[in-house]
Predict the structure.
Amino acid sequence: METAGCNGAHVPGHTVCLAHVDEAGRDAYLASLVPGADVDHGGTTFTSDLLSRLLDALRDLSTGQPHFGDAGFDGAVFTSDVNLEGATFTGGAEFHGATFADGGRFDGAVFTSNVNFVRAEFTDRAGFTDATFSGTASFDDATFSGSASFDDATFSGTAGFTGTTFTSGSGFIRTTFTGDTWFTNATIGYANFFDVTFAGNAWFNSALFTGDTQFEGATFAGGAWFDGANFASDAWFDGATFAGDARFEEAVFEQSANFGPLVCAGRVMLSWAAFDGPVTLTLAARRLECQRTRWSSTAEMRLRYATVDFSYAVFEHPLTIATEADPFPLPGGALMHEQVLAGASSEVRLASLRGVDAAHLVLADIDLAECLFAGTVHLDQVRLEGACTFDAVPPGMHWVRRLPLRFTQRRTLAEEHHWRARRPAAARGWNTALFGAGRVGPTQLAPVYRALRKALEDGKDEPGAADFYYGECEMRRHDTGRPLSERALLTAYWALSGYGLRALRALAWLGVAMVVTIAVMVLWGLPTEEPKPTTTGRQVAVGQKVVLITDTSVPVNPTGPLIERVTIERWEKSLRVVINSVVFRSSGQDLTTFGTYTEMISRLAEPVLLGLAVLAVRSRVKR
């Protein structure tokens, strides 16, 4: 008997659905179906017997499996296990809002057109293993209360799982997504994406992973978006490959112990992300962005190829950033393939530490040539391990305002390059600032050099700290906000000995001073003849006491042509005077008045220059 008010799709020629049509009408309808026929049973409640009869009516004898044309099951209720393994859907498959009370098996099914499981409910296991989806597959807002398996499935079109809930485990092992894939706002329990392939873009924005998440061996050929995703348990990306950008901005990793090793041909974007537990990140990527990223526990980053931006990141516990010399090993002993980064340098470069509290930061074997340090807090406590390199000054001879200029080779900061490059008549070779690098000058850079010098001194690297002391003095010398007297003193200190760090410069000035002193002594400092003592006296009467007075005559200034004063004897005496002056001793040589004052000046200046040379050598060999 047909029931009035039936909400299911009506059987052709009747006013009720297949569940409510009378037996004669049901038999007639089922007898009219052939494999590949279109069916519409939306809103119909299927018992095990009713579903079996429908599938038998559509079964293709050549394959032994049901064959649907367009299949409409929107809002249908399946009270028992649905077995559509190996079924073929040559038309659209509509299961919008369908309920699978005892699970659904679509393993090996073939969907040649669009598939719609939007808001479908699977209260038990859902199987789509080896299923083929040739068109768009929509599982948006679907609920999988039991396990869901899409292992080895193929999605040739767009696959949508937006808002989908996987309460129990879900498997996408070796699944292939040829088109774009959406898991935005999905809730996923244990998720296994082992060896999955995303040929298009993959969106996991704001997804909630409540259990362990495995993307081991996954391939992302397009972009990958995990922005705002929450990984409540461990997230494994061992051996994952990203051909485009991998975005994890604002993602939360509550207890991930390992992140990677993974390879990314583009950018790994972790800006605003939060790591709540101890974590080890092993990445090979062109760029790693960690702006305002927060680490709430200890962390270690082993990197290759990457240019790293850590602007305003927060390290609450010790954090190490290190360069990995060799490709990362994978579980099982194989090495991570890095073909997507072929041709790039495996060195790791740090782009910025601005706004970072570096008290707990350790850098090992990092290229710091382009790093921006201005604004870093507690920079004096950073630890530099291994071969951390900085930029250098432009080599060779340069012409500035028609004057030759050669810069003393030393390690410099990128920000000094930027400042010097924008000065009027700047020498060639200074690197210009990139957009967004900001504008800093000597006032801001002097404390940065001072902090780095102290960091190296605390690490017992006195010779390495010398270059940063040089840079600090250079910035103080060029700082127009400092008193003119201080800048003049620093200029003299620079000119005479390179701030006590350039031994050759001090020795050169010492040589010049000695030559000048010798010349002055030869020409004007030595008298014409050595003054000889003269004794005079007289006896007033025989038998009285004789009074004798011995005196030395005043040295006579040399006269005559200057060339006649240049003799071997005078040169040897002048050399003796100068050598004694260098070691702060008096020569005992009789000198003219001019020579006496010259000796006094040389006894003050030349030992100072010698001391500066010794100080420069000491700064380079001090342990």
In short: The mean pLDDT is 88. The first helix runs from residue 23 to 32. The two ends are 102 Å apart (CA to CA). DSSP finds ten helices and 55 strands in the chain.
